[in-house]
Amino acid sequence: MAKVPINDPKYWRKRAEQARTAAGELTDPDSKRRMLRMANDYEKLARRAELRLKRQQQQRNSSQLHLIRHPALPSQLPTRKSSPMRT
């Protein structure tokens, strides 16, 4: 689970469920509609939080790949000084 609630999809999904439950108890159609709209907005926030977490994970994985050294990569092979060409 994420440390900051704004980045926690579970937090927003719980809020959405609470809003849907509250909407089910309302009798006024306008109030019910507004509460269901809030639930939908909470679901959107959950999806955004998931995307942020996914991007953060991809960035961590990408940065870790740069730390791996592979002996066959030319950029990591020892260089030697070139001598002037003879003609």
How do you describe this structure in short?
The chain is an all-alpha fold and 87 residues long.
Number of helices: 2
Low-confidence residue ranges: none
Shape, per Cα inertia axes: rod-shaped
Mind telling me the C-alpha Rg?
A: 27 Å
By DSSP, the count of extended strands is 0
Instruction: Please indicate the count of domains.
Output: 1
What characterizes the major β-sheet?
none
Helix content: 55-70%
Report the sheet-strand fraction.
under 5%
Mean pLDDT: 83
Q: Strand pairing plus helix content: what structural class?
A: mainly alpha
Distance between the termini: 68 Å
> How do the helices and strands follow one another from N- to C-terminus?
HH
Output the keywords.
mainly alpha; 87 residues; rod-shaped; 2 helices
Topology:
Layout: H1 9-25, H2 29-67
Plain-language structure description:
By secondary structure, the protein is mainly alpha-helical. The chain has one domain (5-70). Helix content is 64%, strand content 0%. The chain is built from two helices and no strands. It has helices at residues 9-25, 29-67. The mean pLDDT is 83.
